[in-house]
Design goal:
Layout lengths: L1 H34 L3 H29 L1 H20 L4 H29 L6 H29 L3 H4 L1 H14 L14 H19 L1 H4 L4 H23 L7 H4 L2 H31 L4 H52 L5 H28 L6 H28 L13 H13 L2 H4 L9 H15 L1
Helix pairs in contact: 1-4, 1-5, 1-7, 2-3, 2-4, 2-8, 2-15, 3-4, 3-7, 4-15, 5-13, 5-14, 8-10, 12-13, 12-14, 12-15, 12-16, 13-14, 13-16, 14-15, 15-16
């Protein structure tokens, strides 16, 4: 029963976060009109959340490892729901932006805990199936978001999409309280506030800089200063972590080749996928003039095949091992992005749908393999921090992909000149190149899944040598 509760809490929590992001996109035009907000203010409803959640994911995972993931899950989901209720009652756009930042803080507490619960309730050799269920759940939420959001906004107004989060949050919290975890083996180390603050600052500045690239370009003063600040902050963080008695990212985690390879794989593959969705949306709606429903139907096979591909990837993972499945997934994503580069500018429904289906299968293989590796390769005592790293990659990767796509779309175009469908081809090819980089970390994954006992023993030996 407790194992089932852990799976339900993990999947429902992840779906709630995924659905919230999709619903917000549908609510923004109505929100802007009712609150008399500027476009910049409306954009900050997304940017503020993204910066907050990306900055705190790893720190939240570390706190969960120390104080308990069930506590973090319940606190995160209830705080997320309370912030949603506040947004539904917000009188001005300033309140909405501020509460979205608060929502991001609680979202950061929630997301690593959803992965950690799976690691604590399932042995590593049995993680592939619950990870596949979680991946399929995220795909379902992403597919249902546009339909559900459209109905809610049309019938009840933009505030209703935030009201929806409240009962869902209460239900997830109730299920989370029913989870019974094994006795936790707390690490006898102090929390490092200096490292946590540095990491949060570096990630926040880096994400904020990337989010601004479509508007400012890679050579804009704000982008250059933000990039320099991020590099300097990262160098300071590395120097601090080397000296710290309890680094925010434990040395055993940083030294794990499977974990670091899986994080890198997720980063570049998510960048390719979400950058491609950004380009496809621009091409199908802004250039070819399709309405949102027609454009959504063109790319719907991506979500459908992602949902169907998750359990198939789980089966393949058991038979062929992480390296082969991940490399195959990266190859499929790369080929699909190259195919979109040819077909998306013309808007061919069958061709675009077919390549999106291929993209969904490939991304499902990458997600299931990389997530299972990240969470399964760590012992229970580090489940939160590796979950935070995984979620950070899934937040930063799309930001990188969109920044690359936007810069290529606008390259060489005089100011004020409308974008053309032809500009989508080089942008999608650039994203295919980004995704192809994932072959390197994919080939660094293990050929087979190790058993739970050998994994724990390996980490203990590593801990004794580097801690």
């Amino acid at each position: 029963m407790s194992r089932s509760a852990a799976l339900v809490a993990s999947v429902a929590g992840a779906m709630m976060v995924a659905l919230d992001g999709t619903l917000l996109l549908l609510a923004q035009p109505s929100l802007q009109r009712e609150l008399h907000a500027t476009m910049t203010q409306v954009q900050w409803t997304g940017t503020g959340y993204l910066v907050a959640v990306a900055a705190l994911l790893v720190v939240a995972g570390r706190l969960g490892d120390r104080y308990g993931h069930r506590r973090l899950l319940v606190a995160g989901v209830l705080g997320f729901g309370a912030a949603s209720a506040g947004i539904a009652l917000a009188p001005t756009i300033g309140w909405v932006v501020g509460l979205r930042v608060v929502q991001g803080v609680f979202g950061a507490l929630l997301q690593p805990a959803t992965l950690a619960l799976l690691r604590l309730r399932y042995p590593p050799e049995r993680l592939a199936t619950p990870v596949a269920v979680r991946t399929a759940g995220i795909g379902i939420a992403s597919a249902a978001g546009p339909v559900l959001g459209g109905v809610l906004v049309a019938q009840l107004g933009w505030r209703s999409v935030f009201v929806l989060n409240v009962p869902v949050a209460v239900a997830v919290a109730a299920v989370g309280l029913a989870v019974r975890l094994p006795a936790a083996r707390r690490r006898p180390s102090r929390t490092d506030p200096g490292g946590a603050a540095l990491l949060a600052a570096v990630l926040a500045l880096g994400v904020y800089t990337l989010v601004g690239v479509p508007a400012r370009g890679w050579t804009g003063a704000a982008t250059v200063l933000g990039a320099l600040g991020t590099v300097v902050g990262a160098a300071a963080l590395l120097a601090h972590e080397r000296r710290a008695a309890a680094p925010i990212v434990p040395r055993t985690v940083a030294a794990s080749r499977p974990v670091t390879a899986a994080i890198g794989l997720l980063l570049v593959t998510a960048g390719g996928l979400f950058g491609a969705l950004f380009v496809a949306t621009f091409c199908l709606q802004d250039v070819l003039g399709l309405d949102p429903l027609d454009a959504g139907l063109r790319v719907l096979p991506l979500t459908v095949l992602m949902v169907l591909g998750a359990p198939l990837s789980s089966l393949a993972l058991r038979r062929y091992g992480p390296r082969r499945v991940a490399a195959t997934g990266v190859a499929l994503v790369t080929v699909a992005l190259a195919g979109l580069a040819r077909f998306a500018p013309a808007g061919d429904g069958v061709a675009v749908g077919s390549t999106c289906a291929l993209l969904g299968v490939g991304f499902a293989a990458v997600m299931v393999t990389a997530t299972g590796t990240v969470v399964g390769d760590a012992p229970a005592g580090y489940a939160g921090v590796v979950g935070g790293l995984k979620q950070t990659a899934m937040n930063v990767g799309p930001t990188i992909g969109i920044a690359v796509a936007a810069s290529v779309l606008q390259a060489g175009r005089p100011a004020g000149t409308p974008l053309s469908a032809a500009a989508a081809t080089p942008a999608l090819l650039a994203l295919a190149g980004v995704a192809a980089v994932g072959l390197y970390p994919a080939l660094r994954l293990p050929t087979t899944r190790r058993g739970a006992g050998s994994q724990e023993d390996s980490w203990r030996r590593t801990t004794s040598s580097v801690s």
